[in-house]
C-alpha cells in the first residue's frame, strides 16, 4: 500500500498569515499544499490567482497541489505552471479539449490531475488514465469549504482503484470535501492515497495541525 499523503487545503488557513501558515504545515509534516483556485464562474466563489501562488511558493519546499476550478481553463494553465504549481488539476467540464489540456500540462513539465465532481462519471476520462498522475475525487460539490462529506463517491474510488490495478496504472487517487478523522479511514480503505483536508487540520484539537495531520494519516 502506498504511503497516505496529506494535502492541507489553505482555503481554511488564516489568509492574513498565509506564508506563515504554509511554513507551519510543512513543519507539521504535510506532504504538499492544496491550493483551490476558483473563478466565480465555474464555481460560485472567488479565491486566489497566479501572483499569490508565486509569492507563497517562496515560503515552501514541498509541492503545490493546485486545483483549478476555472473555466475556460486551458488558457490559464501556463500562468499557474509559471507561478509554481507542481500538480495542476483541472475539470473535464472546464475545457473544450481535454486531451489538448492534458498535453499542455505535460509539455510544461507538471504533473497532470483531473478532478471528478460527485456527478461526473469515470468514463469521461477512461481513455486518458494512462496519461494522468492524479485523479481528484470531489466528495462535495466544489465551490465552498465546510460542506458535508458525500459517502456515495467512495463507490467511484473503489471502481477507479480496480481499474488502476487491472490496467497496472500508476496515478494517485486524491479525495477532497468534508474529510475528517472518521471518513478518511473509509476513503483510504476504498483506495485513496492522498487526503485533502482544510477545516479538520486547522480547527480540530485546538488547531494542533501536527496532531491533526498525524491522525488523518493513521488508518
Would you kindly provide a written description of the structure presented here, covering whatever features stand out?
This protein has 219 residues and is α/β, with parallel strands linked by helices. 32% of the residues lie in helices and 18% in strands. It has an eight-stranded parallel β-sheet with strand order 1-8-7-6-5-4-3-2. β2, α2 and β3 form a beta-alpha-beta unit. α2 packs parallel to α3. The chain starts with a strand and ends with a helix. The relative contact order is 0.16. The mean pLDDT is 94.
Question: Can you give keywords for this protein?
Answer:
globular, TIM Barrel, 8 helices, 18% strand, 32% helix, 219 residues, alpha/beta, eight-stranded parallel beta sheet
Please sum up the structure shown.
The protein has 219 residues and is of the alpha/beta class. It has 8 helices and 8 strands.
CATH topology: TIM Barrel
N- to C-terminal separation?
A: 12 Å
SS field, number of helical segments: 8
Number of domains: 1
From the spread of the alpha carbons, the general shape counts as globular
Largest sheet descriptor: 8 strands, parallel
Beta-strand percentage range: 15-25%
Helix content: 25-40%
CATH architecture: Alpha-Beta Barrel
CATH homologous superfamily annotation: Aldolase class I
User: How would you state the average pLDDT, rounded?
Assistant: 94
Strand order of the largest sheet: 1-8-7-6-5-4-3-2
Secondary structure category: alpha/beta
Radius of gyration: 16 Å
Care to count the β-strands?
Answer: 8
Amino acid at each position: 500500500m502506498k504511503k497516505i499523503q496529506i494535502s492541507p487545503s489553505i482555503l481554511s488557513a488564516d489568509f492574513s498569515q498565509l506564508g506563515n501558515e504554509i511554513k507551519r504545515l510543512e513543519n507539521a509534516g504535510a506532504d504538499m499544499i492544496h491550493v483551490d483556485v476558483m473563478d466565480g464562474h465555474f464555481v460560485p466563489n472567488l479565491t486566489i490567482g497566479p501572483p499569490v501562488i508565486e509569492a507563497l511558493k517562496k515560503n515552501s519546499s514541498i509541492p503545490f497541489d493546485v486545483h483549478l476550478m476555472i473555466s475556460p481553463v486551458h488558457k490559464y494553465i501556463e500562468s499557474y505552471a509559471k507561478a509554481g504549481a507542481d500538480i495542476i488539476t483541472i475539470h473535464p467540464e472546464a475545457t473544450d479539449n481535454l486531451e489538448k489540456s492534458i498535453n499542455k500540462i505535460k509539455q510544461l513539465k507538471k504533473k497532470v490531475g483531473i478532478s471528478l465532481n460527485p456527478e461526473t462519471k469515470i468514463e469521461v476520462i477512461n481513455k486518458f488514465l494512462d496519461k494522468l498522475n492524479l485523479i481528484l475525487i470531489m466528495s462535495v460539490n466544489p465551490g465552498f469549504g465546510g460542506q458535508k462529506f458525500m459517502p456515495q463517491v467512495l463507490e467511484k474510488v473503489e471502481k477507479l482503484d480496480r481499474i488502476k490495478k487491472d490496467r497496472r496504472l500508476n496515478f494517485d487517487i486524491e479525495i477532497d470535501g468534508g474529510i475528517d478523522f472518521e471518513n478518511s479511514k473509509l476513503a483510504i480503505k476504498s483506495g485513496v492515497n492522498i487526503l485533502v483536508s482544510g477545516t479538520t487540520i486547522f480547527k480540530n484539537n485546538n488547531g494542533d495541525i501536527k496532531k491533526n495531520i498525524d491522525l488523518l494519516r493513521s488508518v
